[in-house]
Structures are given as C-alpha cells and as structure tokens.
From TrEMBL:
InterPro entries: Ald_DH/histidinol_DH, Ald_DH_C, Ald_DH_CS_CYS, Ald_DH_CS_GLU, Ald_DH_N, Aldehyde_DH_dom
Swiss-Prot/TrEMBL keywords: Oxidoreductase
Species whose genome carries this gene: Paracoccus onubensis
Protein name: Aldehyde dehydrogenase family protein
Family, per entry: Belongs to the aldehyde dehydrogenase family.
Length: 483
C-alpha cells in the first residue's frame, strides 16, 4: 500500500503534501461488488481549501508552471504520464474495488489518464497565437494565456480518466488546478497525487480535495480565488454551480448527462450492432454519460434486434469486477434503487421487458442487464437519464421520424447511426442534435476527438486539440508604430 493510504485512510493532496482532513467525519468507502468497507477518506474542510487555494494562486503568480519554458512543461507532462503508468497496477486494483468496475476497465482508466498527459504534453509548446495585419503603422498579435486557478469537479463513473481529461490540458496551458474528487470512489483519484509528486510537478500546481459536493465542492466553486470552473456531472448539480458562477461571472465548462440514441436502419450489419449495444449500454454497468440508452430501430428489423439484444444481454456473465466479468454492479444501493424504480415505472407506461428488469438477488448492487422494448418516446424512461444497464428500444418507420425521436429529449451528448449507406449516414449525422455522432461503432473516437454536449448535456468541449482552448483565454496586443 502506498504511503497516502498506508493506515487505511486516504488523505488530501495539498500543495505537494498529504494532508489530514479538517472537514469532519471521514468518508467511508465501500466495494459495490461485495458491500464491504474498503478504506476511509479524509474530508477536506475550510482550512484545507484555503491552503489549496493559496498554494494554487502562489504557484500561478510565481509562474512556476505558466512561465516555465513550454518545451520543459511538455517534458514534465510526459514525466507525469510515466509516473501514472508507474502507479497503475496498484491504482487499478483500488479503483476496481471502490467503483465496482472491472479490473480491466480500471487499468484502461489509468492508461487513458497517462495518454491524456502525453497528448496534451505534445501540444504544450504549440499553443501559438496569431499575427493580425493592420497596415504598416501597427503590429498586432494575439497570445493565449492560462486562466489561473482552475477548479475541477469530478464524477464517480470514471474518476481517474475524467480527472486527467481536464487536468492535462489545464496544466499544459500553465494553469494551477484544484480537483474535488467524487465522494463515492475518491481513493484512486487521490492517488494521482503520487504521480505528480514523483514527476516533480511544482507544489501547488495541483491539489486534490476529498469531500462532499454540496459542502466543500460548493465552497470551492464559490471561491472568489477561482478563475475557471470545470464541472463534469449531473444536470442538477451543473445548474447549481452555474448559479454560483453567475455572481462572480466565473467562466465555466459544463459536461453533463445524456440520453443518447442509436438510430438503426434496416441495412445495418446486425452483428456489428449487437456488439455496439453490448458495449454501448452494458460497459461500466451503463454508468456512462454517453451510454447508448435508447435504440431506435427500423420496424422491418425491430423484433429481430430486440430478440438478439435480449439474448446477448441475458447471456452476459455477472460478477465482482476483479474477475473481469461482462457485467458488474452499479456504484451504490441508492443508484440501484433509482435504476430499478425507473425501470418498473417504464412498465406502467407500456414498456415490455425483453430481459432483466430488476435487481439480481446476490451480494452487491447488481441490476440485471435490461432491454426494454416498445418504449414510448415521451415516457420518463425515454426522457430521463437512467445511468444504469437499461436500454430502451422503440421502432420507427421513416428517417424523419427517427431523427425527430433521437432529437426529442432535452439532452444532446452523443448519437449513433447504424447503416451500410454512408450517404444516408452523412445526411442523418448532420441532423442529429449531439456533440458527437458515432457511425457503425458506439464509442468510436478517443482522446483526440472533441467531446461535449448540446442542450442540457452542457457546453464547451473536452478531449482533442479543441479542448486546449477551453483552458486559455485570448489576449490581443495592438501596438502603434507611428512613433
Ligand atoms: P453529481 O452531479 O451528483 O456529482 C458530480 C460531482 O459534483 C461530485 O464530485 C459531487 O461531489 C460534486 N458536487 C455535488 N454538488 C455540488 C455542488 N453544489 N457544488 C460543487 N460540486 C458539487 O454527478 P455524479 O452522480 O457524480 O455523476 C453522474 C453524472 O455525471 C451523470 O449525469 C453523467 O451523465 C454525468 N457525466 C457526464 C460526463 C460528460 O463528460 N458529459 C462524464 C461523466 C459523467
């Protein structure tokens, strides 16, 4: 066990040191697969927060990172990537146990986190401004400057990779960052502090605070010392943070929920589709913002798709994440209850349970892999984010009807199209209200492809080069040469 958790208590990482909490009772962290207590987590209170804010500000004002030669900052990012790989084996074991996900998925999270640092390390010395022609009497140019102190609030479904997704571009651009870890699975994320320590990141450039969202999370985003808010989480919390940001007019990036639809045409490859449904809605027990939570299918193949999807879902192996089964528990008893309730309400609205539909009677918070057929597109189960292993299927007759249904929620995170007709794929992709459209493979894309929402799925983009420009602001310098 690493020093930060040697005695079963994960600490806060503040200004390069592991700090005890001053925020009251420790957070007890449990294993969703066994319901057993794993460890405790120290909660940051106001003094911890003040220390993190002061250190972040001082680091920024001194220019420890912001004024570092960009090529040196790029090398630092690469060192961090290496150190993340160095803690990955131990970290993935913790992440698997505290989140319930498979060990393989937890290992992938650490690998993805390392890759974010490599990707943004590669561009840390290429954040180039423009020269703007104003005629012979002027010199005019733009520079991109870091915001200063970036407050980043992270959800529990991918705590390590989502934290890295925002940390890496922010640091590459020279910001200081304060991360608030999710209360349900904070430990693996806090462990990233070890990688920052070992890579010799300037102390204060990153602090990681553990604690309750409405308490220390709210105090962080409300702080006048924060120059930017990056929030990934639910719509209701995002709305609350936006209200907090309105007073000081703090620039904000919102990565919120989704209710994403796959549009399945009659000419698609059914094997490819079923493989995508399997990962699209059952990966991480459906607790993915961009999950394929709705499947809209052309009526001519609808019953066939429902039957094959139900057969696939019913055949998934189930177990504790450490055994790398196909299907794992949801994060908590509360989440299980929410998923089960919305699924049973769906029945009252006429949905047919093709498979699953209830919790599994075993230790841990397991919801059966569920396929709901004949879902009314206006019903709550088709409109609200479920965040569990439940796919809602609905037939359509025309392309126009399918597009209207796909666009018929308040969300707009991703969407998918399954067809062999690429002309149709391009046409429909342009009409779908979503930040990213997958064609013939759900979750196609990766760390280099921009990701973010439309409507209540939020605004701003993460991933890719585009995300880098969320972490800088443009300054124009206009110089008269008239003497
Ligand atoms: P949540 O909104 O409950 O919590 C997210 C984070 O916000 C947690 O760290 C929590 O402690 C903190 N928080 C809560 N109240 C706060 C407040 N008042 N001020 C500051 N911080 C506060 O979300 P969750 O249940 O952890 O995550 C699931 C949600 O996240 C889903 O809606 C999912 O779609 C969304 N999500 C979106 C993306 C994306 O990139 N768009 C990625 C992953 C998850």
């Amino acid at each position: 066990m690493s020093p930060f958790i040697a005695d079963g208590l994960a600490r806060n990482f503040i200004a390069g040191e592991w700090a005890e909490g001053d925020g009251g009772a420790v957070i007890a962290v449990a294993d969703p697969g066994s319901e057993e207590h794993i460890a405790d987590c120290a909660q940051a209170g106001e003094q911890n927060l003040a220390r993190a804010l002061d250190a972040a500000r001082a680091t920024f004002e001194r220019g420890d990172l912001a004024d570092m030669k960009p090529a040196a900052r790029a090398r630092l990012m690469m060192r961090i990537a290496g150190e993340i790989r160095g803690i990955a084996a131990e970290g993935a074991d913790i992440l698997c146990r505290e989140s319930g996900k498979t060990l393989a998925a937890a290992q992938d999270e650490f690998e993805e986190a390392a890759q974010y640092f490599e990707y943004y390390g590669g561009v840390a010395d290429k954040i180039e401004g423009k020269s703007i022609p104003l005629g012979p009497d002027y010199a005019d140019y733009t520079v991109y400057e870091p915001y200063g102190v970036s407050a980043q609030i992270v959800p529990w479904n991918f705590p390590v990779s989502i934290a890295a997704r925002s940390l890496a571009p922010a640091l590459a651009a020279g910001n200081s960052v304060i991360v608030k870890s999710p209360e349900l699975d904070p430990i693996a994320l806090a462990m990233l502090g070890l990688a920052f320590e070992r890579a010799d990141l300037p102390a204060g450039a990153v602090s990681i605070l553990n604690g309750i969202g409405r308490d220390i999370g709210a105090k962080l985003v409300q702080s006048a010392q924060v120059d930017q808010i990056v929030f990934t989480g639910s719509v209701s919390t995002g709305q609350s943070i936006l209200r907090d940001a309105a007073g000081p007019v703090t620039p904000s990036l919102m990565e919120l929920g989704g209710k994403s639809a796959a549009v399945v045409f009659e000419d698609c490859d059914l094997d490819t589709l079923i493989a995508s449904i399997r990962s699209g809605i059952f990966f991480n027990a459906g607790q993915v913002c961009s999950a394929m939570s709705r499947v809209l299918v052309h009526r001519s193949v609808y019953e066939q798709v429902v039957e094959r999807a139900a057969e696939m879902a019913g055949g998934l192996s189930v177990g504790h994440g450490l055994g790398n089964p196909d299907h794992t528990p949801v994060i908590s008893a509360g989440q299980l209850q929410t998923v089960e309730e919305i699924t049973s309400t769906a029945r009252q609205h006429g949905a047919r349970v093709a498979t699953g539909g209830a919790r599994l009677q075993r230790q841990g918070y397991f919801m059966a892999p569920t396929i709901l057929a004949d879902v009314d597109p206006a019903s709550p189960v088709a409109q609200e984010e479920i965040f569990g292993p439940v796919a809602c299927m609905t037939p359509f007759d025309t392309e126009a009807e399918a597009v209207a249904m796909a666009n018929g929620t308040e969300f707009g995170l991703v969407a998918g199209i399954f067809t062999r007709d690429l002309v149709r794929a391009h046409r429909v992709a342009r009409r779908l209200r979503a930040g990213q459209v997958f064609v013939n493979e759900w979750f196609a894309g990766g760390i280099s492809t921009p990701f973010g929402g439309v409507g209540k799925s939020g605004f701003g983009r993460e991933k890719g080069l585009e995300a880098l420009y969320n972490y800088v602001r443009t300054k124009n310098i206009a110089i008269s040469l008239k003497g």
